[in-house]
Design brief:
alpha/beta, single chain, Rossmann fold, 7 helices, 134 residues
């Protein structure tokens, strides 16, 4: 995982809570990582579900990322929305969420690999390299 990658919310949650596979994210973040604003929101939401306030979750997430490098949080634009919609039919059988498809769309638009913890994504036949971190 050298070089830029796109991060799904599941890997950001793994990083924050030091879950299995989190160690594989260090090189991805040092190499330059991107995440969609939708995945950023999903990450913060999952942290809030675990009992953190939004402000505390945001501060913790930023601190942990800063210790490793930088993640660019990419706005969800109209072109991003179009690409996300294009993925609907080919990912429907897995029940991917809007945020999941936004992550894949960002990878496709930037021609970057996508990192996730979701093993089911391996069965996707789309023009995006998918790396499952655990």
């Amino acid at each position: 995982m050298n070089g830029p990658s796109v991060l799904d919310a599941s890997v950001l949650v793994a990083l924050v809570y030091d879950e299995p596979g989190a160690d594989r994210l260090e090189s991805a973040i040092r190499g330059g990582a991107l995440t969609s604003t939708l995945n950023w929101a999903e990450t913060l939401s999952r942290m809030v579900e675990r009992g953190e306030t939004v402000d505390a979750a945001l501060a913790r997430l930023r601190l942990q990322i800063a210790a490793l490098g930088k993640i660019d949080v990419v706005p969800f634009t109209e072109s991003h929305a179009r690409e996300t919609a294009r993925l609907r039919q080919t990912t429907r059988h897995l029940g991917l969420s809007l945020a999941d498809r936004a992550c894949l769309a960002l990878g496709r638009l930037h021609r970057l690999p996508v990192l996730t913890t979701d093993r089911a994504w391996r069965s996707l036949h789309i023009s995006v390299k998918i790396d499952v971190i655990r």
